[in-house]
UniProtKB/TrEMBL annotation:
SUPFAM superfamilies: Flagellar hook protein flgE
UniProt name for this protein: Flagellar hook-basal body protein
PANTHER family: FLAGELLAR BASAL-BODY ROD PROTEIN FLGG, FLAGELLAR PROTEIN
Keywords: Bacterial flagellum, Cell projection, Cilium, Flagellum
Domain spans labelled Flagellar basal body rod protein N-terminal: 5-35
Organism from which the protein derives: Sporosarcina saromensis
Length: 278
């Protein structure tokens, strides 16, 4: 009986966490460059139950031999193992601002270990000097003319340097070359992640690498990408599917809740009626 409480409780916790993840996806459905999270729910290791059984041996002394009688397998509950961003490109949204840039993915190498394609990101310099990565090209110019993201992180070029401009009257070619008049100022830096699922999510659409800086995409064979000025990459959240998944998670939570109430009523009956001493 008590094992049933634990099993049902683990199911409720897993569905609650899944609902929270889906609610965060829905809240960021209109956030530029946001990557929807996916969850994987796994079951705890199952136990094989057996009961002790005494078998009488037909001898003069009437000996008994103790053995195990198989009962069957018992599930010990489920848990949400991990959440992973879905690195599928979102749709483009036109803004008309020269400081907005969309990074379009082309042909990307497929990782042999995972069987999934890599991903490309804008290179940024955070406030502590480390490199972080984003798909949100909603940039602006700070008072010194440096190209930054909304958090004030500097946009880096292919050499890892900050990009300084005179004003917002500039253009960006499809190859990422930043032009002021007829002169080239810099080339937007792009990093390539062969296994984007291993990146660490930092919040605000930012990712970091746990193994040092990602390589510059220009130096990786087979990586294709382009830029489109005046556009932003939207979120890749599928609102209709997310709402359906939220309803399914809610129904699963509700079903576990009803089972928990049934267990509670059974325990109450066992304590107040069956265990009553007349």
């Amino acid at each position: 009986m008590f094992r049933g409480f634990y099993t049902v409780g683990s199911g409720m916790i897993a569905q609650q966490r899944r609902t929270e993840m889906l609610a965060n996806n829905m809240a960021n459905a209109n956030t530029s460059g946001f990557k929807a999270e996916q969850s994987s729910i796994r079951s705890f290791p199952e136990m094989f139950m057996s009961s002790l059984n005494a078998t009488r041996i037909p001898t003069e002394k009437g000996l008994h031999m103790t053995g195990l009688l198989p009962v069957g397998e018992l599930s010990t509950g489920v848990y949400m193992q991990e959440t992973m961003p879905l690195f599928v490109q979102g749709s483009l949204r036109e803004t008309g601002l020269t400081t907005d840039v969309a990074l379009l993915e082309g042909n990307l190498p497929v990782d042999e270990e995972t069987g999934t394609p890599g991903a490309v990101f804008f290179r940024l310099e955070s406030d502590n000097g480390n490199e972080v990565y984003t798909k949100n090209g909603n940039f602006t110019l700070d008072p010194q003319g440096y190209l930054t993201n909304p958090m004030g992180y500097y946009v880096l070029d292919t050499n890892g340097n900050r990009i300084q401009l005179q004003n917002d009257d500039f253009r960006i070619t499809a190859d990422g070359v930043v032009m002021e008049g007829e002169g080239a100022v810099a080339t937007l830096g792009v990093s390539f992640a062969a296994q984007p699922a291993t990146l660490l999510k930092q919040g605000n659409g930012l990712f970091a690498s746990s193994t040092g800086n990602l390589p510059e995409a220009q130096g990786v064979a087979g990586v294709g990408y382009s830029f489109q000025q005046g556009y932003l990459e939207g979120s890749n959240v599928d609102s209709a599917k997310t709402m359906t998944d939220m309803l399914a998670a809610y129904r699963a939570f509700e079903a576990n809740q009803k089972i928990l109430q049934a267990y509670d009523r059974s325990m109450e009956k066992a304590v107040n009626e069956i265990g009553r001493v007349n």
